[in-house]
Amino acid sequence: MRLIKFSVTNYKVFKEKFTIDFSKDSIVILTGRNNTGKSTILEAINCFFQKETKAKTIPNDCFSQRRTEILFEAVFESDDEDKITIKKKYKEESAPIFCDEQGKDIKKTHELYDKLEEILNNKPFYITPSMLPDDINDLIQDIYSEIIKNDLLKLEGFDGDSEEDKDTFELAKEYSRLKEAYPAFLRKVKQSTDSILSQVSKDVSDNLRILFSNNHLSLNVIGGESEGFSSADLLKSTNSSVHIDSNKQEKMPLANQGTGLQRMSLIYLIQNMIEKRLLGENDNKLLLIDEPEAFLHPEAVRALSRPFIR
Fold first, then answer.
1. Which one of 77, 92, 100, 275 counts the least CB within 10 Å of its CB?
2. Is the pTM of this model over 0.90?
3. Pairing relation of β-strands 2-9 and 70-77?
4. What is the pLDDT of residue 163?
5. How far apart are CA 15 and CA 37, in angstroms?
6. Angle formed by the axes of helices 133-156 and 166-212, to 10°?
7. Beta bridge partners of 126
8. What letter would DSSP give residue 251?
9. Are 267 and 289 in contact (CB under 8 A)?
10. How do residues 278-288 score in pLDDT, each as one tens digit?
11. Mean pLDDT of 171-188
12. In the chain, which ranges are E strands?
């Protein structure tokens, strides 16, 4: 699903509804005077894709008009040009909710629920001038995770010719065996653990009966059941980083570099991976860059503008 229109209401500088229609070009540039809301729009788009579950995910001072909801409205278009509208509403001291064009909450039984999950699982990469080292490291990990998830999806759906793509065929078979063996292994481990927990439960129950003078008290520790092996299990055990080598020092983490080099490295890195479709086969991955020229020397700003010429 491709984002083709985005509206924001009652958020920071946008007291009234403000709408942007996006062209179908691969690059869209927002221009305007200072304090007209360019950064706020990018921030709002990134915020729309977040799966918040807690209240106060947006500070109260972001409400342009207090005691009035913030509304983000996004229109998406599929490859066959079907359009859907998703709204995200924020109220003070409340968790946000997603709803359809008519304002009906999108819950699991809603016909748009699966589409919404697909959209939110394709959240944008967001680069801002104020990124801290932890923000940069988190973004790098997100990039790496996206690539691994995409590779695993390809393996799960691989149906190519084993002669033409032998390496991928062997890797797909190995991944399939791993997915089958993992639950069986966990069940064996669980049998041993459950036996220990059973004795712990019995001992604690005996103590509770004595302490509360109640022979009917009983405590049971129940071990969780495994839902099988998934890409999430692999991602938990992976950690990625980006190093910069120069004539002064080798293997210096990107987060320790100058701000200009950090930003341009991330921009070029994500652009290149999107172009090579390492982050998925669709062309709908968003890269949001707030003030791409920030912290750059004038010559670097001129060089940055060249790839945007069409």
1. 275
2. no
3. antiparallel
4. 62
5. 11
6. 110
7. 288
8. S
9. yes
10. 777 666 788 89
11. 82
12. 2-9, 18-21, 70-77, 83-90, 97-99, 125-127, 243-244, 252-253, 287-289
Separation between Cα atoms, residue 288 and residue 284, nearest integer Å? 12
Q: Which residue has the tokens 């001072």?
A: 61
Q: What is the pLDDT of residues 81-100, one digit of tens each?
A: 789 999 999 998 888 999 99
The first and second tokens of residue 43, run together, are: 């921030």
> Comparing C-alpha atoms, which of 132, 129, 125, 144 is closest to residue 241?
144
Of 257, 287, 304, nearest in space to 137 by CA:
257
The residues with which 287 forms a beta bridge, in sequence order, are 125
User: Which token pair is 214?
Assistant: 């109640």
Structure token pair of residue 175: 């991944």
Provide the sign of the torsion angle of the four alpha carbons 27, 97, 137, 121, taken in this order: negative
d(CA 79, CA 221): 50
> Which tens digit of pLDDT belongs to each residue from 188-220?
878 878 888 888 888 988 998 888 888 888 888
Fold held by 1-123: Rossmann fold (3.40.50)
* CA 211 to each of CA 38, 138, 205, 220: distance values in angstroms, whole numbers, following the listed order: 65, 49, 10, 17
Please spell the DSSP secondary structure of 180-229, one letter per residue.
Answer: HHHHHHHHHHHHHHHHHHHHHHHHHHHHHHHHHT-TT------PPPP---
Q: What is the DSSP letter of 141?
A: H
